[in-house]
Design goal:
Layout: H1 2-11, H2 15-29, E1 33-39, H3 45-53, E2 70-74, E3 79-86, E4 89-95, H4 101-104, H5 110-113, E5 116-123, E6 132-136, H6 147-155, E7 160-166, H7 173-185, E8 189-194, H8 202-215, E9 221-224, H9 227-235, H10 239-245, H11 247-293, H12 298-315, H13 321-358, H14 361-401, H15 420-425, H16 438-467, H17 473-559, H18 563-586
Parallel strand pairs: 1-6, 1-7, 2-5, 7-8, 8-9
Antiparallel strand pairs: 2-6, 3-4, 3-5
Helix pairs in contact: 1-2, 1-11, 2-11, 3-9, 6-7, 6-14, 9-10, 11-17, 11-18, 12-17, 13-14, 13-17, 14-17, 16-17
Length: about 600
């Protein structure tokens, strides 16, 4: 179908429509399919991806964890590049594949890893054909820390989620809770239980995990895999050992159901694009045929085409209503996001202040900072979700305004949330040593007690001498103890106050830093979405204008023909019209989706 549509667009010199159909054809042949691999630290995510693609592309180390999101896609030759943000600007840098470990794991220099948002690795692999992409993610680590919101946010862009847990123990409560949340974001959920070759009790663990999922009503396919067996099977090669590893079954599930779904979405979008192109080609053909059929009514038809051309010209002006509505909508959206961020920051700061007044931040520092980072991640994810929802609402309003122009929904791009973990690790954010903790704190309190006791004895001695009273040794020591205890209490209060103030300053600075980055990302996303919608509707209006202009020109030329020329031209147009209508009739009827257009 697309091939015939391309031939028709080429014959009518519609390079704009030809470009659209070629892009649709490319998406249909190679649909983009994103499968996200998620799990806690050291559960075997990277090893699993290596086994799926049949190559040690993701670095694996018993002591070092993956630190960057890594997308592995199919390519004719190995290649790697990193995408990072430096001084607020996106940069793409080609890197040697053999040096990948320095950029995606904790082994590398933190300065080299700074600002990296994504690492892309291309390798030749049958598993990665047809646009199939696997994404290795950093370990989430407890699922209550800062990576949770970022991972859930990323899943909104994925076609499927493979959740990895090993067979050493059954699913924990946080893991099941995460799966509940993930199921709402990404409907295609697969549970991969790894390292079954290392734990004799893996069958019992699998059954317990099934029970946990059923109890929480989490619908997920469960696969048991032994990635190391698959790598061994590939090195021999040994098909029997490969089947035993469970990897072929998991890969078949992913490349079957998930890839088929992606191909279906690409087909729906291609049909939308083809229908749009054929209708634009048919418009001038039908207009010219009508003129040839009834020259007396031609002037009325030409007036209608001229009016349509004028309307489309006005719609393409800078001050057109739809353009003003688009600009105003995104201005309001930007203001709403800024106000929401400020309100969220005020609320979080108030909670932090209240919490600090209730606890000693020294022993509670890890838990306290973990909660703050989690809240910041959730705030970031929420604000970006507000932007995308607001952009979709603006898109719907513009589409309704231009309903007479037969607009098609454009895709809306997404954005990643701010990596709060990277920002937290970017500078020293620990409380200073010696504030009432450890040996230094004990020695400091002891010296303070001695100083307090000595000064108490001295003051009491002066008072006694003035009164003419002699104090015995034990009495002096008791008084010294009282004065020393009070001094210790005062010193501890002062130290606690100092720790709270220091913690307040650290957390305030960090919150400001994260919210500044979130604000920058939010403004950039608003700008990108504004540009995307503006370009989409501008292109559609230009295509319509070009079709209307072609209809007007062909109709005027038809009036200038003599009778014989009109009959000959009418035969050509009838054949074209029949061909275009037949192609339109052959297109399957599909429900409109936001992914189309």
């Amino acid at each position: 179908m697309l091939a015939r549509g391309l031939e028709a667009c080429t014959a009518w010199n519609r390079d704009d429509l030809t470009t659209k159909l070629r892009l649709a054809q490319a998406r249909l042949v190679r649909p983009s399919t994103l499968v996200c691999v998620v799990g806690e630290y050291k559960q075997g995510k990277s090893t699993l991806i290596n086994a799926l693609v049949g190559s040690p592309v993701c670095p694996v180390d018993d002591d070092l964890a993956t630190s960057a999101i890594t997308a592995v896609y199919g390519a004719e030759a190995p290649a790697a590049r990193i995408r990072r943000v430096v001084d607020g600007r996106a940069q793409v840098e080609e890197i040697p594949v053999e040096a990948l470990n320095l950029y995606v794991s904790e082994q590398g220099d933190p300065a080299e890893r700074a600002g990296i948002e994504l690492v892309e690795v291309g390798i030749p692999s049958p598993a990665l054909e047809d646009g199939f992409t696997l994404v290795d993610t950093p370990g989430i680590g407890g699922f209550l820390q800062q990576h949770t919101a970022a991972t859930l946010r990323f899943l909104g862009l994925a076609d499927a989620l493979v959740f990895v847990t090993d067979a050493s123990q059954e699913l924990t409560a946080p893991e099941v809770a995460f799966l509940e949340q993930a199921r709402q974001v990404c409907p295609n959920l697969v549970l991969a239980i790894t390292k079954t070759d290392l734990y004799p009790e893996w069958r019992r663990i699998v059954e317990r995990n099934r029970e946990h999922l059923a109890a929480r009503r989490v619908d997920a396919e469960v696969f048991t895999v032994a990635a190391t067996l698959q790598m061994e099977a590939l090195s021999r090669p040994d098909e029997g050992l490969s089947e035993e590893s469970g990897i072929p079954a998991l890969l078949g599930e992913l490349r079957g159901r998930i890839l088929d779904s992606a191909k279906q979405r690409s087909a729906v979008r291609a049909i939308d694009e083809l229908r749009w192109a054929l209708e634009r080609l048919l418009q001038p053909v039908e207009s010219e045929m009508a003129v040839l059929k009834d020259p007396a009514a031609a002037e009325r038809m030409l007036d209608g085409l001229r009016a349509g051309q004028e309307r489309l010209s006005r719609l393409q002006e800078a001050g057109a209503r739809w353009a003003t509505m688009l600009t105003d909508g995104f201005t309001d959206l930007r203001s709403a996001v800024d106000l929401g961020l400020r309100a969220a920051v005020r609320s979080l700061l108030a909670e932090v202040e209240a919490r600090l007044e209730q606890v000693d931040p020294a022993p509670e520092w890890e838990a306290l900072t973990g909660e703050v980072r989690q809240r910041l991640s959730l705030i970031a994810a929420d604000r970006l979700a507000v932007i995308e929802e607001g952009a979709a609402a603006i898109r719907d309003r513009i589409a309704a305004l231009l309903a007479d122009e037969e607009q098609v929904y454009p895709d809306l791009i997404g954005a990643e949330v701010v990596d709060v973990a990277a920002l937290w690790a970017g500078s020293q954010r620990e409380l200073k040593e010696g504030h009432g903790r450890g040996v230094v704190g004990v020695l400091s309190s002891s010296l303070t007690a001695l100083r307090g006791g000595a000064s108490g004895i001295y003051l009491l001695g002066v008072a006694a001498s003035l009164a003419g009273v002699a104090l015995a040794g034990p009495v002096s020591l008791g008084v010294a103890a009282l004065f020393g205890a009070k001094q210790i209490l005062d010193t501890r209060k002062a130290a606690l106050k100092q720790r709270r103030q220091e913690a307040r300053m650290i957390l305030r600075q960090f919150i400001d830093e994260v919210m500044g980055e979130v604000g920058n990302r939010a403004r950039q996303l608003v700008q990108d979405l504004h540009r995307l919608l503006r370009d989409h509707y501008s292109a559609r209006l230009q295509e319509l204008s070009r079709s209307t202009a072609a209809a007007l020109q062909s109709s005027q030329e038809a009036l200038a023909r003599d009778r014989a020329g009109r009959e000959q031209r009418a035969d050509v147009l009838h054949r074209w019209a029949d061909q275009l209508r037949r192609q339109l009739a052959e297109l399957p009827t599909v429900e409109p989706t936001e992914a189309s257009g």
